[in-house]
Amino acid sequence: MKLFEDKILKNSIEIYVAPEQVFDFLLQLVDNASYRAWHPDDHVAFRWLKGNPWEVGSIGYAEEYFHGKLHKFRFRVSKAVANRSISYAPVSRLLKMFFPESSFHIEPSAKGCIFTGQVHLRIGKMAKTFAKRRLEQGLSSVRKHMKEEGENLKKILEGKNSQDRLIEKTS
User: Fold this and answer.
1) Distance from C-alpha of 108 to C-alpha of 167, rounded to nearest angstrom
2) pLDDT number for residue 171
């Protein structure tokens, strides 16, 4: 009998910009201001502790709200493919048991790209049995946060893109 069940949460959204623009946005997440701009309601703090943004082996620190509680975590970038994907995992071995990996994927589409945020979780059988309602509230909160991140990214990048087109037309 397995003690943990794997659960993958995913959220995808089509963004009408080139994959390079989405990847560049992620590369520009370097401080509190850039992180808050992405999700003003939930993102609190962000910084790189070691290495360069989103390079394999780099370590970042983030603070954000989930289900009304502030969560602080350090993560290590485990995979980065320019303009395609970034994967990262908690630095803590204990946390890594329950949250083995999170990732961003960028797939080209006819009108731009599909941005997908993904979180891999391991949920204990006891939690599913004895804290089912609380677990579902937590998962619902993470799903909502991921959806908002995608929607906010779309607004930021498509808004910037339309402003760039306006400037080009008026020049």
Assistant:
1) 26
2) 40
**Do 27 and 53 contact (CB within 8 A), yes or no?**
yes
- Would you say the pTM of this structure is higher than 0.70? yes
CA distance 57 to 135: 31
Backbone angles phi, psi at 138, to 5 degrees: -65, -45
Provide the token pair at 53.
């943004």
Q: Got the DSSP string for 75-138? A: EEEEEEETTTEEEEEESSHHHHHH--EEEEEEEEETTEEEEEEEEEEEEEHHHHHHSHHHHHHH
Percent of the chain topping pLDDT 90:
74
b/e map of 26-49 (b: 16 or more CB within 10 Å)?
bbebeeeebbbebbeebbeebebe
Provide the strand spans (E) within 16-52. Answer: 43-50
- What is the radius of gyration, based on Cα positions, of the chain? 17
How far apart CA 30 and CA 34 sit, in angstroms, is 6
